[in-house]
Design a protein that fits this description.
The protein is mainly alpha-helical and about 400 residues long. The chain has helices at about 15-40, 50-80, 85-105, 115-135, 140-160, 165-185, 200-230, 240-260, 265-270, 275-305, 315-340, 345-360, 365-385. Helix 2 (about 50-80) crosses helix 7 (about 200-230) and helix 8 (about 240-260) runs antiparallel to helix 10 (about 275-305). The protein is globular, with a radius of gyration of 21 Å. Pfam families: LtrA. InterPro entries: Low_temperature_requirement_A.
């Protein structure tokens, strides 16, 4: 058992196995973006923001399931040594299951619902059961035993939803996801057995920080993959090439805003915190918001490439401007994690994007995307001006 654990004195950098694992999530995120684009282009949905948001809710449900798989795997490799064959077996089987999950995304609310639900349950239940069996004489066995109970409970609505009509399926899967997320948040409490009090952020904050950096890079890489593929699906003319350029600029600016200082010192902030578990959960939430924002921006870029000079529908404007706004919201939370404050350009950027949205309806989508570039560029420039001539700011977490 001792050989399976990640040692405190061992390097905390993610391994090549974990980077290999992330390759599946490039594909998974691409499928999520594809579903978002369909949400925004299905007949009346494209004209009505409220309807498209309801469609987006279904896609978000699938994304949250994928996100929870990735998060649980990152936690696992923060506790267990990825160089051990048993741990590598779990990571690779989870990788294969995640590939099936990604394949099932496109029809998860229809014909591939059973494949999606059963694969998700198999990953979560199977992984917890594996560690319950092989771990001996350590509190991590009890942690996985508690998690196994919760994943067993959530398996019921997951599998029942796979056989139900769409509306009932959405409700059952929402309940299942709520059970999974609530269980993780509370430490999987079980009557008579108590709950888990061990936070991976407390023992491997530096490792988990780098895993979340890598996930952001994966999401940004997906935007480049999607926009480049979209350009190839139509004539390569000046306006579509310009749309690709604008999409690339948005991706670069999101990268710049993310990694500017706070993105570089998350591990330091967690280490300096008096409550690394609580701060780590806040960091997770901030990254979820940012990844959702990046994916929405990616969908918006594909919409621009579909019809750069047409009339931007309400739902399209919501995607093109809403993605950067969500990203800035997540980045604001992330800045609070690192420095216990939020610099003004980020909330100002969100307000400007929200204020622009109503007047952008009906304008060329390319112009809407260009406006998003201007706002993001303003945030990036303000960061540079504020830092000019000053020493690098050190981590100062709120607690």
């Amino acid at each position: 058992m001792a050989n399976l654990l990640r040692r405190r004195e061992s390097p905390q950098r993610p391994t090549f196995l974990e980077l290999f694992f992330d390759l599946v999530f490039v594909f998974a995120l691409t499928r999520v973006v594809h579903e978002l684009v369909l949400d925004y282009t299905r007949g009346h949905v494209a004209d009505r923001l409220t309807t498209s948001l309801a469609e987006n809710g279904e896609t978000l449900l699938l994304l949250l399931a994928v996100w929870w798989i990735w998060t649980q795997t990152a936690w696992m490799t923060s506790r267990f040594d990825p160089f051990q064959p048993a741990v590598q077996f779990v990571v690779i089987t989870t990788m294969y299951g995640s590939l099936l999950l990604a394949v099932a995304i496109s029809g998860a609310l229809a014909e591939t619902g059973l494949l999606f639900a059963s694969t998700y349950v198999a990953i979560q239940v199977g992984r917890s059961l594996f560690f319950v069996v092989i771990v001996r004489g350590h509190d991590l066995r009890r942690v996985n035993m508690l998690a196994l109970v919760w994943f067993g409970v959530s398996a019921v609505p997951w599998l029942a939803g796979a056989f139900a009509p769409e509306l009932t399926r959405n409700s059952l899967w929402t309940v299942a996801l709520a059970i999974d997320y609530l269980g993780g948040r509370l430490g999987w409490p079980v009557p008579g057995l108590g709950r888990a009090k061990m936070s991976p952020w407390a023992v491997a904050g530096e490792h988990l920080a780098e895993r979340y950096w890598q996930l952001v890079i994966v999401a940004l890489g997906e935007t480049i993959l999607t926009s480049g593929s979209s350009l190839l699906r139509g004539p390569i003319v000046a306006q579509r090439t310009l749309a690709l350029t604008v999409s690339f600029l948005i991706t670069v600016l999101l990268w710049r805003i993310y990694f500017y200082r706070a993105g570089q010192i998350l591990g330091e902030a967690i280490t300096a915190s008096a409550d690394p578990g609580r701060l780590g959960r806040l960091a997770e939430f901030s990254h979820l918001l940012m990844v959702v924002g990046i994916l929405a921006s990616s969908a918006g870029s594909e919409l621009v490439l579909i019809d750069p000079l047409g009339d931007a529908k309400r739902a399209w404007v919501g995607a093109i401007l809403g993605g950067p706004a969500l990203f800035l919201a997540g980045r604001s939370v992330f800045e609070y994690v690192a420095f216990a404050r939020v610099s003004r350009p980020r909330p100002i950027g969100i307000l400007v994007l929200a204020a622009m949205a109503p007047i952008m309806v009906g304008l060329p989508p390319l112009g809407v995307a260009a406006a998003a570039v201007v706002v993001l560029l303003g945030v990036a420039i303000s960061d540079t001006i504020r830092a000019h001539g000053r020493p690098l700011e050190q981590a100062s977490p709120p607690h």
